[in-house]
Structures are given as structure tokens and as C-alpha cells.
Amino acid sequence: MKNFSILGYGHIGKVHEQAIRDTENANLISIIDFNLPSDLDAITYSTLESFLQEDTTTDVVVIATPNGLHREHAIRCLKAGKNVFIEKPISLNVADAEEILAVANEKGLRVFSSMQLRFSPVVQYVKKLVENNALGKIHMVNVQCYWNRNRNYYKLREWHGTDDMDGGVLYTQFSHFVDIINYWFDEVKCVNSRSFNFSHSDITEFDDSGYVDFIADEAVGHMTYTTSVFNKNFESNITIIAEKGTIKIGDQYLNQMLYSDLKNVCCSNKVSTEQKNFHPEAIQEVSDALFRKNESILDGKFAVDLVKFISAANDFAKENKLHQMNAYEVSHS
Q1: Strands 245-250, 235-242: parallel, antiparallel or unpaired by DSSP?
Q2: pLDDT digit string, tens, across residues 270-318
């Protein structure tokens, strides 16, 4: 059994708390945040500094603070001798992500990232199809994420909507979908991107919608995303078009098999699950990996690949906006 402490007790911190309590090989030691409730069944600290000075039993610190603080908090914990389990994204740029791993390597410690949708039975099923070449040559991969994030969402959390703390919708809302493409394929590379702000221009410092073109091994990939859907989330899905089949999985947590037509493969419709929360599986994976000292599908190196992809997408989007602006100025000069 490994001992966990949680840094940050907002919405996602509470999710991790319950996941730790629900996992047999994990034990919750403490929670670190200011203005914590007085009835928590854990040791509480109001600052990270006091925790790092006094704690002697924590094996893993769950970093559940705003995105823009992940680098600082992770490195401080690593330098104090703690392994870290960082909520997605591991950081908001590649240099920070690589620095986190470098410090961990120097200290002989582990970095994990919260990429819990990898434990969805549907995601695992498609992973095995790809690994076993059951789909043959994969031609296309399409990702669609049509969500709603209204004004109240951004008002509830003051750090949401900012470039330096939030980082944008690809990081905060849709990074799990990018991660699953990284999980299924050996080499995923962003080759182009465009972004737009349809309904949040007076709310966020970044665009709310866009598309990304990518290559996944030899397959052509395309992702369309938005947080501007009217009223509520509409749908999320990933479709694979391949030589020996077509498959579509979906729901916000990628726990549903929506369509399957596969050559010489049956019963794929049975892999769907009503389970949506895979955080306990992630906590168990981290605890097991530390106990057995084996590699993990949550290792930080995979989280760096995610940051590389989204950073490239954001860079392409900015370049295309600049080209469009310059073209407009030339045409009207």
C-alpha cells in the first residue's frame, strides 16, 4: 500500500480524494489547501511549505492545482523526495514538462499523469485491435468534441479562461481525447490547426473552437472541437476507418461502443460500460507501479507527448491567424 496526499482541494481534488478512499492499495494521508473544511478525515495543511516541512509518510503527492501551477508544485514536491501524480495536463508547455521529468530522474523518483480514460474497457479494446493488427491498414482517425462551457463555468473558477493558468480548451477540456490517440498509435504528429472564438471572446483569453489535422502512424487524422454548443454538451466520439473495419466509440468518458463493423471480430458491442469514473483505476495503477517498480501507462513521458501535440496545435493556430491577418491587410492596402 502506498500513501497519498492531495495538493489542491477543488472539484478535481475531491474526485482524487474519493478515488484514493475507494482503492484498496492506497491510503490518504493529508490534504493541502487553504480554507479546508474542519471535518476532513485526513491531516490538513494550509500551505505546501508546511506540508513539505512536516510530512514524513507520503509516497505520492497528487497535484490537483490550476494547470499553470503544475510545474512549480511538482518540482517542489520532487525536490522534497515525493513522487508526483499530476492532474492533466502535466504542464502548459514542453520545456516545463521536460523539466519535471528531469528533476524526477535526478532524484530517482516517479512522475505519473492523470490519463485515466486509458482504463476505459472500450479504449482498451480498441488498443488491442490496433496492437494485433486486427483492423489492417488504418486509413483515417476522426475526433469530434462538441461541448458547452458557459459564462457561469468560468465565473465559478477564477483561473479558468486565462492563458497562464488554464491554457485553453485543448488542455483543459479535450486533452483526454488527444491522449487516447497517443495511446493507440506509436507516432502522432500535429501538422496543422485553426482556431476560432465563437462565443467566449469577452470571457476567455483563448479561442473556444477549432480543428486539428494530424498524422497517426500512417493514418490521416482530423479533430474538430468546440465549447460553444448551445445549452449543454452534445457529443464526443472517435471514429477509425480501416482496411478491415470501422469503429466508433464515444460519450464524454469514451466508455461506449457506438458502432462496430469488423472483419472476423464479433461481440465488440459487449465492451461498453456505464462506468464513467476511472480515477480509482489510475490510483491503483500508480500504487502498483511504485510497489512493483515497473513501467506504467500513466508514466510522465506519455504526458509530455500530449503537451507536445497541443503546443504544436496552438502554435499552428496562431500562425494561421497571423497569416490571415496579414493577407487581409495586404488586400485592403
Answers
A1: antiparallel
A2: 899 999 999 999 999 999 999 999 999 999 999 999 999 999 999 999 9
Residue 111 forms part of a structural domain = yes
As a whole number, the mean pLDDT across the chain is 95
Q: Alpha-carbon distance 170 to 149, whole Å? A: 13
β-pairing, 209-216 vs 188-196, is: antiparallel
Instruction: Cell 499530476: give the residue.
Output: 86
What's the CA gap between 282 and 125, in Å, rounded? Answer: 17
CA distances 42 to 6, 30, 88, 250, Å, are 10, 5, 24, 37
Q: How far from the centroid of its chain's Cα atoms is residue 125's Cα?
A: 20
Does 128 lie in the same domain as 101? no
Give domain status of residue 234, yes or no: yes
* C-alpha to C-alpha distance for 122 and 112, rounded to whole angstroms: 22
Q: What is the mean pLDDT of residues 80-84?
A: 98
* pTM summary value: 0.95
